[in-house]
Design goal:
About 20% of the residues lie in helices and about 25% in strands. The protein is of the alpha+beta class. It has a 6-stranded mixed sheet. The protein has a 6-stranded mixed sheet with strand order 5-6-7-8-12-9. The longest helix is centred in the middle third of the chain and has 23 residues. The chain is globular, with a radius of gyration of 17 Å. About 45% of the residues are buried. The protein binds one DNA strand through loops.
DNA sequence: ATGACCGGTCGTACCGGA
């Protein structure tokens, strides 16, 4: 079984690439983030024609998450329990049962700067994610929580930690929130790098960041032990970040012996 | 060469992204 997570940065702008990627990488389950489209605008028919079932949670212009599965897709849940908003709740999480695994696709708020109200929102949202995940795991011991967490778990997950002092994505409260999520009994499935020493998953479009490998690992796969024990391989699909018209994120692909 | 921001909107600048 192959599970992938990918921040596509607009499914509308990425549709030809998304369809090509589904055909060539053939994930059994794909967690998408930043679809940036309303539920009705999602290219459901095109994705279904490749053999996938589709579950979508969308706002319109921003945010948006989706789950694609060709191993079954049931018990869809959108949003978190007591989900905070900015000011209203946004389309940032979706979960479903795919095969024998409960799969969550999440898009954590950016935070902008530590002084910005968006940062406090990010921390509130992470607490709601922790609480919802805790109750979900009680019912589903085989689970993965995948997505764009907008947090680099360690300094090794940023190309130059000195540049990120006092920036979002690396602050202690954000990393503590991640640690508390892991503390529910999850395992960080760190992928192999696509190239070079670091398993980065995001590179800014500007200043040649990708070819200089000035990236971050912010797209994460957290798995419960019964799932983590079956990981055969995990890798950054760096090829998908190349060429004309890529997302600024690369997919993370996890191969399971199941 | 992977090659030096991009996607969205009621916009033809500016916000959001990270």
């Amino acid at each position: 079984m192959r599970i992938a997570t990918w921040n596509v940065n607009s499914v509308g702008a990425r549709l030809p690439r998304l369809l090509d990627w589904l055909e060539t990488r053939a994930p059994d389950v794909a967690c998408l983030q930043e679809t940036k489209c309303a539920v009705d605008a999602f290219p459901t028919a095109e994705v279904e024609s490749l053999g996938y079932q589709v579950a979508v949670h969308g706002d319109g212009r921003w945010n948006g998450v989706a789950l694609l599965s060709r191993v079954g897709l049931s018990e869809v849940r959108t949003g978190l329990a007591e989900e905070p908003g900015f000011p209203d709740p946004e389309a940032r999480s979706i979960a479903a049962t795919c095969g024998d695994i409960r799969v969550h696709s999440v898009y954590v708020p950016n935070g902008r700067t530590p002084e910005d109200p968006h940062y406090a929102y990010k921390l509130r949202w992470l607490e709601a994610l922790r609480a919802t995940t805790a109750s979900e795991l009680a019912d589903h011991p085989h689970a993965v929580v995948c997505g764009d967490f907008n947090i680099a778990p360690t300094d090794a997950d940023v190309w130059d930690p000195a540049l990120f002092v006092s920036s979002t994505h690396v602050t202690a409260p954000e990393r503590t929130a991640l640690a508390e999520l892991l503390g529910l009994g999850l395992v960080d499935v760190v992928p192999r790098p696509g190239k070079g020493p670091n398993p980065f998953t995001y590179w800014d479009y500007r200043a040649g960041a990708f070819y200089k490998d000035m990236g971050m690992r912010i797209d994460l796969v957290y798995a419960t032990p019964p799932v983590a024990d079956t990981v055969r391989d995990a890798w950054v699909d760096r090829e998908t970040r190349k060429g004309k018209g890529p997302s600024d994120h690369a997919p993370v692909i996890v191969e399971l012996d199941r």
